[in-house]
């Protein structure tokens, strides 16, 4: 049997150049996988059950991501409802569907994605998010303003970390009207943060390449995963910015811990509490 030959045509690709700085070289590497018809943004919707929320999320992306060249990746992460059937029905030309047969956690689907095939900017949406007018345009304006911004995140409802803005509204139409009035690009509302709750985050591809894909330690099943992700990007020399000029809806009951069993999630914290209780944490340096 003849050996298989895999040919990769790189005739039109420009490699990093001697003398270029760190960020220029990283950008050159990130652009290697791009072609003339590549989308500017990859929007990934990650869904596990909650079909009605998934539907609202996807429909908001299709309606309010205007004037942006984007591809849409719909991930059914082992749902047991009709999520896959719905994804197949979504009408959008640049759509891909990933179907995971059994839920192995939110990180697993990204292990199956080739980062090199994704766009220069990558947005990850949980299925309980509803996007709004000008959301992506504003986030792109922010992240493009400085090549050292690796992550930008909108403000939203039902979150913590001083990222929460609550609008009173009676229905989706009123919510969208108020969001449209709010979402006007304004650099004075951009705030560098050491830590971000990553809801609706837009990433720069070279930041993800530098930190490793998928970014984040799989050991953080839920608690502190956002901290870890933000810290990794900052350690790579990138800024992490909260875009206070862009609001989206987080359709989630944060106060009552929707979809969680508090006792179960406390176990991961309790392990370290028992290990560290009454002990001195040494820095590793001996005087």
Give the termini distance in whole angstroms: 65 Å
Stretches where pLDDT is under 50 for at least 5 consecutive residues are 280-287
Mean pLDDT figure: 89
* Strand portion: 15-25%
Count of alpha and pi helical runs: 9
Q: Could you spell the SSE succession in H and E letters?
A: HEHEHEHEEHEHEEHHEH
Work out the number of β strands.
9
As a whole number of angstroms, the C-alpha radius of gyration is 20 Å
Task: Classify the secondary structure makeup into a structural class.
Answer: alpha/beta
What share of the residues lie within helices? 25-40%
Major β-sheet annotation = 9 strands, mixed
Shape: globular
Give descriptors for this structure.
287 residues, alpha/beta, 9-stranded mixed β-sheet, disordered C terminus
3D architecture notes:
By secondary structure, the protein is an alpha/beta fold. The chain is 31% helix and 19% strand. It is built from nine helices and nine strands. Strands 1, 2, 3, 4, 5, 6, 7, 8 and 9 form a nine-stranded mixed beta sheet that branches. Helix 2 links the parallel strand 1 and strand 2. The protein is globular.
Task: Offer a concise description of the structure.
This protein has 287 residues and is an alpha/beta fold. The chain has helices at 22-31, 51-64, 83-89, 108-111, 135-144, 172-182, 205-211, 225-235, 262-276, and strands spanning 41-47, 70-77, 95-100, 121-126, 129-130, 149-156, 190-192, 202-204, 239-250. Helix 1 (22-31) crosses helix 7.
């Amino acid at each position: 049997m003849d050996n298989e030959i895999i040919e990769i045509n790189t005739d039109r690709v420009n490699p990093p150049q001697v003398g270029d700085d760190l960020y220029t070289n990283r950008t050159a590497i990130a652009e290697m996988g791009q072609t003339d018809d590549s989308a500017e943004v990859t929007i990934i919707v990650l869904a596990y059950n909650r079909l009605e929320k998934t539907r609202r999320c996807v429909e908001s992306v299709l309606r309010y991501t205007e004037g942006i060249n984007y591809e849409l990746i719909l991930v059914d992460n082992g749902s047991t409802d009709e999520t896959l059937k719905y994804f197949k029905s979504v009408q959008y030309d640049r759509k891909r569907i990933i179907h995971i047969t059994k839920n192995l956690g939110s990180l697993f689907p990204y292990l199956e994605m080739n980062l090199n095939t994704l766009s220069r900017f990558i947005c990850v949406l949980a299925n309980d998010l509803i996007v709004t007018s000008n959301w992506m345009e504003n986030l792109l304006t922010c992240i493009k303003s400085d090549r050292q911004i690796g992550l930008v995140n909108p403000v939203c409802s039902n979150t913590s970390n001083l990222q929460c803005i609550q609008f009173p509204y009676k229905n989706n139409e009123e919510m969208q009207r108020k969001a449209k009035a709010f979402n006007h690009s304004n650099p004075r509302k951009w705030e560098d943060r050491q830590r971000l709750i990553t809801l609706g985050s837009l990433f720069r591809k070279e930041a993800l390449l530098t930190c490793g894909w998928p970014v984040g330690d799989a050991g953080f099943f839920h608690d502190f995963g956002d901290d870890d992700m933000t810290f990794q990007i900052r350690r790579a020399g990138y800024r992490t910015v909260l875009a206070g000029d862009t609001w989206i809806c987080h359709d989630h009951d944060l106060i009552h811990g929707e979809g969680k069993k508090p006792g179960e999630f406390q176990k991961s914290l309790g392990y370290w509490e028992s290990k560290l209780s009454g002990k001195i944490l040494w820095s590793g340096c001996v005087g």
